[in-house]
Design a protein that fits this description.
Helix content is 60%, strand content 0%. The protein has 13 helices and no strands. The two termini are 23 Å apart.
């Protein structure tokens, strides 16, 4: 049963007010298509988005950023194209694996149209695709209502004082999805984007609580500043 949580909704509202004018690399007006998201979700693993973006540009320039081309391209050539994103052998294998998964589903349109459970199952059965990567693809490429749980999400909500009973990916995801039962995929896209931007600039490992728009709602900021809670 869904359990709306006004604190989680308030966090979204405060972040949306603070970051709604910011650019996010998977925003619909920014990406050139679903393959930017799918390949980008692989290329960004263990590197910065800037490096992943440079690799995406090389793939675009080579005319290789479609499932059929990625599945057929020579692996040495693919390694060269994605080298700028780091671990090129690993990422080339993972890109080819994702491409084969898409081709086997009947192509990109058929793959993105799969039912939620089948889409996630096929992604998780693909070499190099874990829960976070699978859900990023589902949310941003297939526009499914899933909450992407990453290190930024756990850091921010742990500091605020919102945690699931068990520290597992599925428990975190269930907590946040159920906290906002009326939210759709577009809202979850924005929420995830704002969390990442906020944690990169403010809610860092060494947080800048004095500049944080969430400080009145945050247990960590309250405990370190003596400010009263707004919950």
């Amino acid at each position: 049963m869904s359990r709306p949580d006004p604190l989680v909704a308030r966090v979204y509202e405060q972040l949306d007010a603070a970051y709604h004018g910011e650019t996010w690399h998977w925003s619909p007006h920014y990406v050139r298509g679903p393959m930017d998201v799918i390949a980008g979700a692989v290329l960004v693993q263990h590197t910065t988005w800037r490096n992943a973006e440079r690799a995406l540009e090389r793939l675009h320039e080579a005319g290789a950023l479609n499932p059929e081309r990625l599945a057929a391209i020579d692996e040495e050539r693919l390694r060269d194209l994605v080298r700028v994103s780091g671990t090129p052998s690993v990422k080339a294998r993972r890109l080819r694996a994702v491409a084969h998964t898409i081709v086997e589903a009947g192509g990109l349109a058929a793959f993105l149209a799969l039912p939620d459970a089948e889409l996630r199952a096929r992604l998780l059965a693909t070499h190099g695709v874990g829960r976070e990567t699978a859900d990023a693809i589902a949310l941003y490429a297939a526009e499914r209502r899933v909450f992407v749980v990453d290190a930024y999400t756990k850091r921010l909500f742990s500091r605020i004082g919102v945690r699931p009973p068990a520290d597992s990916y599925d428990a975190w995801q269930r907590l946040l999805e159920e906290a906002m039962p009326a939210a759709d995929a577009t809202l979850f896209q924005r929420f995830h984007a704002w969390i990442v931007l906020h944690c990169k600039s403010i809610c860092r490992p060494a947080p800048r609580c004095e500049s944080c728009v969430l400080r009145a709602s945050c247990a960590f900021a309250r405990d370190h500043s003596g400010a009263p809670s707004s919950r």
